[in-house]
Each structure stands twice: as structure tokens, then as C-alpha cells.
Automatic annotation (TrEMBL):
It comes from the Bacteria. Keywords: Membrane, Transmembrane, Transmembrane helix. It comes from Streptomyces sviceus (strain ATCC 29083 / DSM 924 / JCM 4929 / NBRC 13980 / NCIMB 11184 / NRRL 5439 / UC 5370). Pfam families: ABC2_membrane_6. The chain crosses the membrane at residues 32-57, 69-87, 152-175, 208-229, 241-261. This is Integral membrane transporter.
């Protein structure tokens, strides 16, 4: 009961802080629209690069453009949601250095909620919009023998993938507490992870694919379930039921990230500044 109450308190604090930043952003609506459009344009250049690549080749690792667009749309949409919700976690290192992290510790609200909602940026909706557009085009272009299970798996991949990326953000923030910064290390697994998942697993070595599947399970964001949807064999010959495990993987990642966050917060010692 205490944990449920604590969770409810954290969610309420998160939305209060996020709402403050949203109201601040909407004060200058023209600036907000221009910034979001710019964000949409910048993230869209990633897919333009893929389109240019396919102007010279017919397939990449045996996967055609619609199939890679499917991977891309899933990865970018899931990451975009996580980035919108917890994208501010990468500033934790700078807060530790300048001593402002101590201020969060004395406020009557969960620290994780305060960090996650800090500088909540609605402009990040541009990334989500772009991912959804590419995913929608991919769904109409791929040649798939659709079934009820495959149709339901698409939204499950997006939600579970967002949860997995959120867990990576939280774990990365915990690591920043231990390392006193290292935001670039976190970015390597978050921004680097979503870029990695935009390409098929067949272009990577098997040892690398094993690491992304069993050590840091980003493969369950899209590689494993998307292989099932598209009717393609996964390089590691996983059983077919593995395609339906992203929710379980997301829960496990969230639990481990929560433990890491508690450990990091418990080990924190003020900089004294």
C-alpha cells in the first residue's frame, strides 16, 4: 500500500512539474510551433539518409525499404515517447556537479519524478510524429500475412519499447550518480540504441546481436517481434513465442532500473557546493 501511495505521489508530482513547463512553452506559441517543426525536420533527416541509401541498393542485409521503415518507425516512435517522458534525465550529471541536485532531495516530492519532468519539452512530439508517419507508411507497404496476433503486436511493441527505453534512461541516470556525470555514456545506450534498431539485425555480427538481446535487451523493442510480424527468421533462432515477450522484458527492465536508481540515490554524497 505504501508503494502504491508513493507511486501515485510521484505521478502527481511529475504531471504538476510537466504541466508548468508546458504552460511556459505555450506562452510563446509561434516559437513553440517553429521549434517543434525544426525538431521534426531534424529527426526526419535520419530517414532521408535511409532513403538515399536505398536509391543505390535494393536491400540491406536482405531487408527491403518497407521492412526497414517498419523497424525505423517502431524504434523512433518508442524512443520518442520515452524521450518525451524522461528525456531530461541526461542533465542529472550537470545538476550533481553544480550542486542543484541537493535541492531536489529536500523537496517533498520523489526525486525521480522531479528529474524526469524537469524542462519537459513538448517539442519532442516532433520525433514521435515523424516516427508514427514512417510506421504508418511501412504498415501499408510491407507484404505481411496479417493475423490478429500480428496486428495486436504492433501497439504492444510501441508501448513495451517505450518502457524499455524509459528503463534505460533511469538506469543511465543512476549510473551518472555513481560516476558523477557520464551523460555521454547514457546517450550511447539511448540515442545510440534507437539508431542501432533502425537497421536489421542481419547487418550485425552474431556476438553483437546476442549482447543486444540477452545483456541489454534492446532487441525486444523491435528486432525480435518485428521478425515474427514480417515472417523473417531471427539470427539467433529464438522460439516463436519470444516475439510476445516484450511486455515481460519491459517489466524486468523497469524493475532492474528501479533497483539501480535506489542504489544510486542511496549512495549519493553531496558535492558540498
Amino acid at each position: 500500500m505504501a508503494e502504491t501511495s508513493r507511486l501515485g505521489e510521484g505521478v502527481r508530482a511529475y504531471w504538476l512539474i510537466a504541466g508548468m513547463w508546458i504552460r511556459s512553452a505555450m506562452t510563446y506559441r509561434t516559437s513553440f510551433v517553429v521549434t517543434m517543426c525544426g525538431n521534426l525536420l531534424m529527426t526526419g533527416l535520419d530517414f532521408v539518409g535511409i532513403l538515399l541509401m536505398f536509391s543505390q541498393v535494393d536491400s540491406l542485409g536482405g531487408w527491403g525499404l518497407p521492412e526497414i521503415a517498419f523497424l525505423y518507425g517502431l524504434s523512433v516512435t518508442a524512443f520518442g515517447i520515452a524521450d518525451l517522458v524522461l528525456g531530461s534525465m541526461d542533465v542529472l550529471g550537470s545538476r550533481i556537479r553544480d550542486g542543484s541536485f541537493d535541492i531536489l532531495l529536500v523537496r517533498p516530492a520523489p526525486v525521480l519524478a522531479q528529474i524526469g519532468a524537469d524542462r519537459f519539452a513538448v517539442r519532442r512530439l516532433g520525433r514521435i510524429t515523424q516516427g508514427v508517419v514512417v510506421l504508418g507508411w511501412a504498415l501499408t507497404s510491407v507484404h505481411v500475412d496479417w493475423s490478429a496476433a500480428k496486428v495486436l503486436l504492433v501497439p504492444v511493441m510501441v508501448v513495451s519499447g517505450a518502457a524499455i527505453f524509459c528503463a534505460v534512461f533511469v538506469a543511465g541516470a543512476a549510473f551518472q550518480i555513481f560516476a558523477q556525470d557520464a551523460s555521454e555514456v547514457q546517450n550511447a545506450f539511448t540515442y545510440g540504441g534507437t539508431t542501432l534498431l533502425q537497421y536489421p539485425p542481419t547487418v550485425f555480427g552474431k556476438d553483437f546481436v546476442r549482447g543486444v538481446t540477452f545483456v541489454l535487451p534492446l532487441a525486444f523493442v523491435n528486432w525480435v517481434p518485428a521478425s515474427y510480424v514480417l515472417g523473417r527468421p531471427y539470427p539467433l533462432d529464438l522460439p516463436r513465442w519470444a516475439a510476445f515477450t516484450p511486455p515481460l522484458v519491459a517489466v524486468a527492465c523497469a524493475a532492474l532500473a528501479g533497483l539501480a536508481w535506489r542504489a544510486g540515490l542511496g549512495s549519493y554524497r553531496s558535492t558540498g557546493s
